[in-house]
Amino acid sequence: MALPAALSLSAQVAAQAESTVSNLRQTNYQHTEHIDVDRGIYDCDCNGFAGFVLTRAAPDHYAMIPQ
């Protein structure tokens, strides 16, 4: 989902998280990520979800986080 650039960064992150939750059809809490956006599958833990949202809404900022 492409977000309008006019939104603040925090609004873009919130919109991406909301979009992801709206698309959700299946989720399981697990440490190994399995995300299939087309099928609405988001099998991940909290870090995986946050990373997924940030890579889509703020990839440059996410890239600055030490791995």
Total tally of structural domains: 1
Average pLDDT score: 93
The SS-based structural class is mainly alpha
Radius of gyration: 12 Å
Runs in which pLDDT lies below 50 for 5 or more consecutive residues are: none
What strand line-up does the widest sheet have? Answer: 1-2
What is the 3D shape? globular
Question: Helicity range of the residues?
Answer: 40-55%
Order of helices and strands: HEEHH
The number of helices is 3
Largest sheet: 2 strands, antiparallel
Strand content: 5-15%
Characterize this entry briefly.
The protein is mainly alpha-helical.
Can you describe what's shown?
By secondary structure, this protein is mainly α. The chain has one domain (9-63). The protein has three helices and two strands; from the N terminus they run αββαα. The chain has a two-stranded antiparallel sheet. Strand 1 (34-36) and strand 2 (41-43) form a beta hairpin. Helix 1 (9-23) packs across helix 2 (46-57). The protein is globular, with a radius of gyration of 12 Å.
Secondary-structure map with pairings?
Elements: H1 9-23, E1 34-36, E2 41-43, H2 46-57, H3 59-63
Antiparallel strand pairs: 1-2
Helix pairs in contact: 1-2
